[in-house]
Every structure is written in C-alpha cells, then in structure tokens.
Write a structure and sequence with these properties.
By secondary structure, this protein is an alpha/beta fold. The chain has a single domain, classed as 3-Layer(aba) Sandwich (Pyruvate-ferredoxin Oxidoreductase, domain 3), CATH 3.40.920.10. It has seven helices and seven strands. Strands 2-3-1-4-5-6-7 form a seven-stranded mixed sheet. 46% of the residues are buried.
Length: 196
C-alpha cells in the first residue's frame, strides 16, 4: 500500500491548498474545518473563500494555508501544493493550473485512471480519488461532499490527524448531522486511493 504524502515540504513547512467546488457543496466549510483542526493541533492557519454573488451550483474556490510558523502571506493561492476537487464535473486541466511540480490532486471521481489522466491533461503530480458523491448520497442523503473530501485529504496528506478532524466535526455540526458527517469522513478516508 502506498503511503500518504509525507515529504519534508508538506510536513515541516507551509502547505497551501486550493479547493474547487460548486456553490452549496460546502467548499469553504471544508477549508475552514481543515484549518480549525490544524489550529487545534497548534499549527498556524488561514482559510478564506473566493466568490462573489454566485448562485448555487456555480464554481467557487476556497483556500487553506497550514504552517508550523506564523503566516505572513495575505493573498490568494496561485501555486498550491494540493488541489482538492469536490465536484467531479469540474475535473479539467484548469483545476491543476499553477499546481506545484510534484503536487497532489485529490478529487471526487469514480471513473478509471485513464479517464482521470485524460480529463486533467497529464502532469507531474500525485492523484488520489474518492467516491465522495456516492458516499454523501448514501450517508447524508444529499450530494454535499465537503466532509467526505476532508476525509480524502487526510488520507492523501498526512498533516492533520483524523481524530482531530472528527472532534471538530462534532463541534461544528448539530449532534444528528455531526454523527453522519463523522461517518462520512471515516468512510471517505477509508475509500480514498492513490491512482498515480
């Protein structure tokens, strides 16, 4: 079994994450949940969205920075270490624009490895997939993939502990909804796999 990404770049310095999704999928919630969890482990964080008056379903972005040192940067993330895609319909060469060489792509995707590589247009990065939409429908009864993709992120990039995120999910959501999201995070973590 392949190990999650654990390079010195991702573990000992700042990691920059760009989240791609659609309005209503909880893109910024995913970014915030990861940032709050990292902060509760003593790391420095930033989390912010990039959207205007978009309607539900329109493409949106969110950004997360996690660092062992104070963060002095106050701009959007143009060259992320990791790209996370909450909606399979957004998978295209555009989402890997600016991704650092040897970066990581984590996507909600159920097609084949060749289909994914074809949609992204190739590149020098590691790819992980998670059937987040399927899991969200099964567990939540709705296609909201934010917590599933946080679980997928945790499997791919070993920078925040799974149990820390679960603790924060329980604080973030109302009790009944929280437990369903805990289940979704765990299942997504379990089913996320490296394809390249």
């Amino acid at each position: 079994m392949l190990n999650p990404v654990q390079t010195p770049k991702l573990m000992d310095m700042m990691i920059e994450i760009r989240w791609h999704g659609r309005g209503g999928q909880g893109v910024w919630t995913a970014s915030n949940l990861l940032a709050v969890s990292a902060s509760s482990e003593g790391k420095y964080v930033q989390s912010f969205p990039a959207f205007g008056p978009e309607r539900s379903g329109a493409p949106v972005l969110a950004f997360t920075r996690i660092s062992d040192e104070p963060i002095d940067i106050h701009s959007m993330i143009y060259e992320p270490d990791v790209v996370v895609v909450l909606d399979e319909t957004l998978v295209s060469p555009n989402i890997v624009k600016g991704l650092k060489k040897k970066g990581v792509v984590i996507t909600n995707f159920t097609g084949t490895k060749d289909e994914l590589i074809g949609k992204l247009g190739g590149g020098d990065y590691t790819m992980y997939v998670c059937p987040a939409s399927k899991l969200a429908l099964e567990i939540l009864g709705r296609g909201i993939t934010n917590t599933a993709m946080v679980g997928a992120f945790l499997k791919a990039v070993n920078i925040v502990k799974l149990e820390t995120v679960i603790e924060n999910v329980r604080k973030w959501f109302k009790p009944g909804v929280a437990e369903k999201n805990v289940e979704l995070v765990r299942k997504a973590y379990e089913l996320t796999s490296r394809v390249v």
